[in-house]
Automatic annotation (TrEMBL), chain A:
Organism: Sciurus carolinensis (Eastern gray squirrel)
GO cellular component: cytoplasm; nuclear origin of replication recognition complex
Single GO BP term: DNA replication initiation
Designated name of the protein: Origin recognition complex subunit 4
Domain ATPase AAA-type core positions: 45-139
TrEMBL record, chain B:
GO annotation, cellular component aspect: nuclear origin of replication recognition complex
Gene3D superfamilies, per the entry: 2.30.30.490, P-loop containing nucleotide triphosphate hydrolases
Any Gene Ontology biological process: DNA replication initiation
PANTHER family in the record: CELL DIVISION CONTROL PROTEIN 6-RELATED (PTHR10763), ORIGIN RECOGNITION COMPLEX SUBUNIT 1 (PTHR10763:SF23)
Regions of compositional bias (Basic and acidic residues) in chain numbering: 372-382
Function comment: Component of the origin recognition complex (ORC) that binds origins of replication. DNA-binding is ATP-dependent. The specific DNA sequences that define origins of replication have not been identified yet. ORC is required to assemble the pre-replication complex necessary to initiate DNA replication. Component of the origin recognition complex (ORC) that binds origins of replication. DNA-binding is ATP-dependent, however specific DNA sequences that define origins of replication have not been identified so far. ORC is required to assemble the pre-replication complex necessary to initiate DNA replication.
Protein's recorded name: Origin recognition complex subunit 1
Extent of Basic residues compositional bias: 472-481
Database matches in Pfam families: AAA, AAA_lid_10, BAH, WHD_Cdc6
Annotated family: Belongs to the ORC1 family.
Oligomer status and interactors: Component of ORC, a complex composed of at least 6 subunits: ORC1, ORC2, ORC3, ORC4, ORC5 and ORC6. ORC is regulated in a cell-cycle dependent manner. It is sequentially assembled at the exit from anaphase of mitosis and disassembled as cells enter S phase. Interacts with CDC6 and KAT7/HBO1. Interacts with LRWD1 predominantly during the G1 phase and with less affinity during mitosis, when phosphorylated.
Length: 363, 876
């Protein structure tokens, strides 16, 4: 989209062109069906059946009206129209792909000159098109890939942070840019960037990272430091579920450990509350020193809390008459996640930790 | 009527004078004189038939000018029973602004034009008449007399028929001249009048004279309440002049016909009408109303004119009245006939021998003075030129209608001296008319067709006065529906550049839209379809044909070519004329809309789908009247499939009716569509006339490219062969082939930019284009993905390998991923990051993933083959 906008802007800068081009912007998320899309096209072309922002006539009328309008022109006389369809794949889901067919058909016949540009992230978009629609499609595809390497990535990072020449405070801009230059050569910063680059070449994620770092810049802390970036990186790569686990009570942690053991024993088979409770009971009776033997309703409450946090998920939807104790559940945490979270868990009782690490739960 | 009396705050009362003549057929009582009493004025104003009157318009200062043709009382009218029929005159300001320049000179302020437009609604309420006015007819080259300029008199020199200005026809001119002499000043006696009328005449005019005589005498004596001749003639004329109120009235439909309701009618019709027609109408009304408003100064000049007669309130002698009564009637008959005759004259003079053309204009009219004849003769060539210059089609058509009517009339009336010349030139007129039929431009054709339908079937929803800019005063005021203008994309100010280089020229020719002169490689199919349609045309029967073939094999193009050839043949009279309609399943929102489209293209009417279906069924199954064959092309037939299949059923059922004369050509992609989706009763009606377009072979594609690039050395021969073979192997889609070539020219142009030698398109360029189009983007996408994404793909492969399934949950893949990372000593990612990676790959469809609410349990599949992934990952 950025590229398109840029290209169009450049095109529009040529005055002759800008006077002679009509643009229609559509978005698959906004124009969810052909009816709305047609209305939008008529509105944007400001054809005659538009009064204010409203378009009159039924769907069928609009279609024939628009087709007639577009049919009328020919190459020499009428103004070319550029259709830009964002989220193009969603247009392919419209009924019969009527809009696409007609747009392509117009572009392929001697009617009003029309250029249709579709933007999508899907690589398999051609497979979505119906065969007759596909046949009318010109098969001109441009793939935008993040084909750059790490050095370029660092360059982009610098360009994003550097202040422009025309910045009002010249002195500050100079210092800031110097600092950015230093940062880009700093080893720890490069490490952070490398890590980020490995995860995603997406520039948007780089933007998020930089935004997080830049929010720490204040009057008293005027320059970005490597530490800021590292912290931002940590924030970015934080595991959300581990965060949730940190906030759980010891009882809930115990329940999760019990579930983990159950998973190990039964090889990912689903479990129910009763099984978890039994496991928990075994632990409390045999090994636990610090964990109080809670009553069943209390444990149940904790179990439900876990469910609300979506750390566990019922296999079927809860029905009113089924007994909650025996409803089958699945744990939505991976073993590694649990172990990582436990290590960071503040004031974790040692016996609980031991229990978690032991492969055989009853020992 | 209250709102329209804004100008004169005085109350006016209208009353009939004299005994009514009862017209039984029309349920009218006709009168010859109306008396207008103005409150506060002792002397009433008498207005008689034949006098010129001012009629209230939406512009109070500039009332309409018209000639009173008939006064009658109509009980079907709700609001005002007193009706009048008028012949309109238009002021220059009422002529649409863009047509004003056709006059070619500056009009005089007092100049008006005879409104020669039969479609105009001439039926008005008598109570809109303001008062009498004087109109003087002048020869086109006569200067408006200076001495009369001060008086409030209008001058007629030319007639205006919505297309162009023309001199008044001699008959008309004479009659106007006569009127001017007789009616306002009553100088001439009855004897003088009759003498005048009985002056020697020739052929048609002679008959006319006789009629004038007879009607004259009849009305003079006023003995028979029902006139034996005039009413019938009048009725016919009414039909001819296409005044719908009367038709409806005749049939007892009884629409409210007051000016009030007329305002609402056009607006409501807007939805029913074909868009084209409404547009035109409103365009007209807009322009006229605007111009009217703008011309305020003229109104001041004219308004005293209408006031003077009122004030003076001339009471005319009784005998004079009689004369007037008589003469207008003749005039009316004459008038309506005259324009028609005249137009045919002009047309025929073109087609007939020069001798006849010379004869025609010398037909002297009854009261024409010698000097006028000369003038008219001088005029004649000029009008001929005009006739040839502008489109004569429409005029020809309307003239034929009126001509026929006149002929009937003449026969019925009395004279056995049937006009030989008329007889002679009629056939030619008919021929030219029929050939002009199918090539007619949409708007005029529509209106005409409509009228035909109405007179035949009486379509109930087509209410009176759809016809064009009716001049009934109230109409102009409103009817500004929003969607009336012609849909059109703004036109460009920049002219398209001419193709500069050979490559550009080639690209232009290779565009799919560039229609080649002939369709190579489809000669056989072309011949088959052509002979099929042609035979049906000759047999005047119906039939179906099913054409199938994969996309891009030239199905639609071939049919279009066939139709084009047939239309040419029809013009050359080799085949019977036919009407061609095309619908495309893809261009409909819903299968049933096909009825609406067909009906609209057939007759220009708009209706709901159900209603349209009924009308079409009636047209194709019931109507016995002979009509021309309709050729219907249904593209993308498979989209007309409905659960009940009623649309397809109807489409294939209509041709089986004998009266329908419908040829249906259907196009779809699949060969076995009739068997696959159609019910037995539908597919049996479709019949066995099938044709399938095979995908093009490489040699055919080569031929197609060759024909498009004739005399244009832009491609290497090998290159063309390569692309033809490539495409033939893949799909045989000609569109694809052309696309590749176009792309190749672009690549060629680009690569040659620097050395500045735009050479031939070589095999290399084509290969590049083909690669660009057909190569899968997956591998490049994988190659360009980030390390983590690649790792994730690797983990998926490992997991698939481990489980032996083609599907894995995210949790399984994650643990694999972690294991892999540990093995390589890399920091393994967190779950959230992995989720993000997964959804990213899913969004570009490298992976097929379930919605992410399943979290860890969401199942992942590869959308690419495992080998491709391995290949892409190994590259590094």
């Amino acid at each position: 989209m950025l590229l398109i906008n840029h290209a169009l802007k450049e095109l529009m800068d040529i005055e002759v062109v800008s006077e002679n081009i009509l643009q229609v912007h559509l978005n698959g998320l906004l124009q969810i069906n052909d009816k709305i899309a047609l209305k939008e096209i008529t509105r944007q072309l400001s054809l005659e059946n538009v009064v204010g922002d409203k378009v009159f006539g039924s769907f069928a009328e609009n279609l024939s009206f628009l087709l007639e309008a577009l049919k009328k022109g020919d190459r020499t006389s009428s103004c070319p129209v550029i259709f830009i369809l964002d989220e193009f794949d969603l247009f392919a889901h419209h009924k019969n792909q009527t809009l696409l067919y007609n747009l392509f058909d117009i572009s392929q016949s001697a009617q009003t000159p029309v250029a249709v540009i579709g933007l999508t992230c899907r690589l398999d978009i051609l497979e979505l098109l119906e065969k007759r629609v596909k046949s009318r499609f010109s098969h001109r595809q441009i793939h935008l890939m993040n084909s750059f390497g790490f050095p370029q990535y660092v360059k982009i990072f610098k360009e994003q942070l550097l202040l422009p020449e025309e910045f009002s405070d010249k002195h500050f801009a100079e210092k800031w840019n110097e600092n950015v230059q230093c940062l880009s050569e700093d080893r720890s910063v490069r490490e952070v960037l490398q890590r980020h680059f490995n995860i995603s070449k997406n520039l948007r994620s780089l933007h998020t990272l930089l935004m997080l770092a830049l929010t720490r810049v204040t009057v008293s802390h005027p320059f970005l430091t490597a530490a800021d970036l590292m912290e931002a990186n940590q924030l970015c790569s934080m595991d959300s579920k581990a965060n949730i686990v940190h906030g759980l009570s010891v009882l809930e942690i115990c329940l999760i450990i019990a579930m983990k053991h159950l998973n190990d024993i039964y090889e990912e088979e689903p479990f129910n509350f009763q099984m978890v409770y039994n496991e928990f009971q075994k632990f409390v009776q045999r090994k636990a020193h610090s964990v109080y033997n809670f009553e069943k309703p209390v444990v149940m409450k904790a179990f439900e809390h876990l469910q609300q946090l979506e750390l566990i998920k019922p296999l079927e939807r809860t029905s009113a008459n089924s007994q909650r104790e025996y409803q089958l559940m699945k744990l939505l945490l991976d073993n590694t996640q649990i172990m990582n979270a436990l290590q960071k868990y503040p004031n974790c009782p040692t016996d609980v930790r031991q229990w978690a690490t032991s492969s055989l739960s009853w020992l | 009527m209250a709102p329209y009396h804004t100008r004169q705050k005085i109350r006016q009362t209208y009353s009939w004078i004299g005994r009514p003549l009862l017209d039984r057929k029309l349920h009218h009582r006709t009168y010859t004189e109306i008396c207008v009493k103005i409150e506060g004025c002792s002397t009433p104003v008498h207005i008689q038939v034949g006098q010129f009157v001012l009629i209230e318009g939406d512009d109070d200062e500039n009332p309409y000018v018209a000639k009173l043709i008939e006064l009658f009382e109509d009980d079907f009218e709700l609001h005002s029973k007193k009706r009048a029929r008028v012949q309109w005159f238009v002021r220059f300001s009422e002529v649409p602004a863009h047509k004003q320049r056709l006059l070619g000179r500056k009009p005089d302020a007092q100049e008006i034009f005879w409104y020669d437009y039969p479609a105009c609604d001439s039926n008005i309420s008598a109570e809109t008449i303001i008062g009498p006015v004087q109109v003087v007819a002048l020869a086109p080259d006569e200067v408006i007399p200076v001495d009369l300029k001060n008086e409030k008199i209008f001058f007629v020199k030319l007639s205006w028929n919505e297309k162009k200005f023309r001199p008044l026809s001699p008959e008309l001119f004479a009659e106007l001249e006569k009127l001017q002499e007789s009616s306002p000043k009553c100088q001439k006696s009855v004897e003088a009048m009759t003498k005048n009328i009985e002056s020697p005449a020739w052929t048609t005019t002679e008959q006319v004279v006789k009629r004038i005589e007879s009607s004259h005498s009849a009305s003079k004596s006023r003995q028979t309440p029902t006139h034996p001749v005039v009413p019938t003639a009048r009725k016919r004329l009414e039909l001819g002049s296409l005044t719908f109120p009367h038709l409806s009235c005749l049939l007892g439909l009884g629409f409210p016909r007051t000016p009030h309701t007329k305002i609402s009618q056009p607006t409501s019709q807007a939805s029913l009408d074909s868009s084209g027609r409404t547009k035109r109408k409103v365009n007209f009304s807009e322009t006229t109303s605007q111009t009217k408003r703008s011309h305020l100064y003229r109104s001041e000049m004219s308004s005293p004119a209408l006031k003077t007669p009122e004030k003076t309130g001339k009471v005319q002698p009784f005998c004079a009245k009689d004369v007037k009564k008589a003469s207008p009637k003749c005039c009316m008959i004459l008038r309506t006939r005259v324009p028609a005759l005249k137009t045919t004259q002009i047309n025929e003079e073109r087609t007939l021998t020069p001798v006849k053309g010379g004869q025609r204009p010398s037909v002297p009219s009854v009261v024409l003075k010698p000097e006028n004849i000369k003038k008219r003769e001088a005029k004649e060539p000029e009008t001929q030129n005009q006739a040839t210059a502008t489109s004569h089609r429409i005029r020809r058509r309307s003239s034929l209608l009126t001509l026929n009517r006149i002929r009937q009339q003449l026969r019925v009336l009395e004279n056995n001296k049937s006009d030989q010349e008329e007889e002679e030139f009629l056939p030619t007129a008919e021929v030219s008319d029929s050939s002009s039929e199918e090539e007619e431009a949409s708007t005029p054709a529509l209106s005409r067709r409509n009228t035909r339908c109405i007179s035949r079937n009486l379509r109930p929803f087509l209410k009176p006065s759809i016809q064009t800019p009716s001049k009934t005063p109230k109409k102009m005021a409103k009817s500004r529906t929003p969607r009336c203008a012609t849909p059109q994309i703004r036109s460009r100010n920049l002219t398209t550049p001419e193709p500069a280089s050979m490559l550009e020229e080639a690209r232009l020719r290779l565009h799919v839209s560039a229609v080649p002169e002939s369709l190579p490689c489809r000669e056989q199919e072309f011949q088959d379809i052509y002979s099929f349609v042609e035979s049906k045309l000759f047999d005047r029967t119906g039939g179906c044909m099913y054409i199938s073939g994969v996309p891009g094999t030239g199905k639609t193009a071939t049919v279009h070519e066939v139709i084009r050839c047939l239309q040419q043949a029809a013009q050359a009279n080799d085949v019977p004329p036919f009407q061609y309609i095309e619908v495309n399943g893809m261009k409909l929102t819903e299968p049933h809309q096909v009825y609406v489209q067909i009906l609209q293209k057939l007759t220009g009417q708009k209706a709901t789908a159900n209603h349209a279906a009924k009308l079409l069924a009636k047209r194709f199954c019931a109507s016995a009247s002979p009509q021309e064959t309709t050729v219907l092309l249904v593209d993308e037939l498979d989209l007309l499939w409905t659960h009940k299949q009623d649309v397809m059923y109807n489409l294939f059922d209509w041709p089986t009716h004998k009266e329908a004369q419908l040829v249906v050509l259907t196009i779809a992609n699949t060969m076995d569509l009739p068997e696959r989706i159609m019910m037995n009763r539908v597919s049996s009606r479709l019949g066995l006339t099938r044709m399938s377009f095979q995908p093009y072979t490489h040699s055919q594609l080569q031929q197609i490219l060759g024909s498009r690039l004739k005399h244009l050395k832009a491609f290497e021969d090998d290159a063309i062969q390569l692309v033809a073979r490539k495409v033939a192997a893949l799909s045989g889609d000609a569109r694809r082939c052309l696309d590749i070539c176009r792309r190749a020219t672009e690549i060629c142009e680009f690569s040659h930019q620097k050395p500045d030698s735009p050479g031939l398109v070589t095999v290399a360029h084509l290969m590049e284009a083909i690669d660009e189009m057909f190569s899968s983007s997956y591998i490049t996408a994988i190659k360009n993905s980030s390390v983590l994404e690649q790792g994730f793909l690797r983990a998926i492969l490992a997991e698939f390998h481990r489980s032996g399934l083609e599907e894995a949950t995210l949790q399984q893949i994650y643990s694999q991923h972690v294991a892999l990372c540990m093995m390589e000593g890399l920091p393994y990612p967190t779950m959230s990051e992995t989720m993000a990676v997964c959804s990213r790959l899913g969004s570009c469809r490298l992976l097929l993933v379930e919605p992410s609410r399943n979290d860890l349990l969401l199942r992942v599949r590869l959308n690419v083959s495992q080998d491709d992934v391995l290949y892409a990952l190994k590259e590094e």
